[in-house]
Amino acid sequence: MFSKKNLYRLLFFFPSCLIVFCLRELTAEEKETPHKKHVCVIVNPISGGINKKPIVKKIQKKLNNAQFEVEIFYTHKRNDATELAKIALEHHADVIAVVGGDGTVNEVSQVLVGTSTPLAIIPSGSGNGLARHLHIPLKSSKAIDLIKNGRIETIDTVRMNDRLYLGVAGIGFDAEVGWKFSEFGHRGFLSYLLLTLKEFPIYHPGVYDLIIDGKKISREAFLVSFANSSQFGNGVYIAPLAKIDDGNLDVIILKKFPPYGTIKIASQLFHHSLNRSKYVETIKCKEITISQPNLKAQIDGEPIIFPSGIHLQIVPASLCVLVPN
């Protein structure tokens, strides 16, 4: 017969065993169903004139496992990438990856700035300036690997009127070529180079009035670049000293130069030494205003017109990007 003491022990024992059993079952279930990292991939099918199907297949192959859940979106027109990035955030994406060039990366960044969701760049544009600056591999398989083993770096962005950009914006010759390139019909570096060679002999420098950190200056310039990162793309370094995480914007003023200086300037663009040219003025700043109307510009390679002038301001440490360790 059970004593009252033994009966109390028995009544305590069974609920305790039940609790332990349930906890073991929950732990086993958690081991069987680990959290998958949700990766939303936004693909621009026409950027750089590159077929994106092989890249998408690599993504699906490399990330098709118990660790990742992959969702693929395709753009069809300008600004689609921004809307798709909004959807990706609504789907609680852990990472938003871009298969495209600087323009597509720019569109996605409009949504990610100020969030903790990291951007993964799989470079496949005409220039890939931002990816090159961040040392992201141009080989797609290695760039995809950063989704698995890259580190998160927080970079600056630039607010230009009502939108943001990451790399380089500008007015003058590069903006003119950017506009021609957008209308050319064929993407890729060769098309850009041909247009540059065609426009260069007939382009006339303009006069620009700028207010830089409160100081007024006026310059006759071949181009004025507002550089957060160092290059246009394809190894063309417009701002060799620019750093993307220093809280400053580099204003590069390329003044009017004689025809005999063309070869040297071209060489300096490719050899990280344009800042040494006597025709170049570099100003580090945080804010710029240009009040001239109907300014034709380019933002990360994409053409735009500002009817009422431009206001630029650096936005420090505002975007998370996956980069190599």
Structure description:
This protein is an alpha+beta fold and 325 residues long. Helix content is 34%, strand content 34%. A hairpin with a 2-residue loop joins strand 5 and strand 6. The longest helix is centred in the first third of the chain and has 29 residues, at 4-32. The N and C termini lie far apart (70 Å). Residues 10-14, 17-23 and 26-31 have low confidence and may be disordered.
Task: Output the keywords.
325 residues, alpha+beta, 11-stranded antiparallel β-sheet, 4-stranded parallel β-sheet, 9 helices
Main sheet overview:
11 strands, antiparallel
Oligomerization status of the protein chains: single chain
Rounded to an integer in angstroms, the radius of gyration calculated over CA atoms is: 26 Å
Our count of helices gives: 9
SS-derived structural category: alpha+beta
**Uncertain regions: pLDDT < 50 for 5+ in a row?**
10-14, 17-23, 26-31
Fraction of residues in helices? 25-40%
| Approximate strand percentage | 25-35%
**Count of β-strands:** 17
State the order of secondary-structure elements, H for helix, E for strand. Answer: HEHEHEHEHHEEEHHEEEEEHEEEEE
Shape: globular
Secondary structure topology:
Blueprint (H helix, E strand, L loop, with lengths): L3 H29 L4 E7 L9 H11 L4 E7 L5 H11 L4 E6 L1 H11 L6 E5 L5 H5 L6 H10 L1 E10 L2 E3 L2 E5 H12 L4 H11 L6 E7 L2 E13 L3 E3 L2 E2 L11 E7 L6 H9 L9 E6 L1 E4 L4 E5 L2 E5 L3 E14 L2
Parallel strand pairs: 1-2, 1-3, 3-4
Antiparallel strand pairs: 5-6, 5-17, 7-9, 7-15, 8-9, 8-14, 9-12, 10-11, 12-13, 14-17, 15-16
Helix pairs in contact: 2-6, 3-4, 7-8
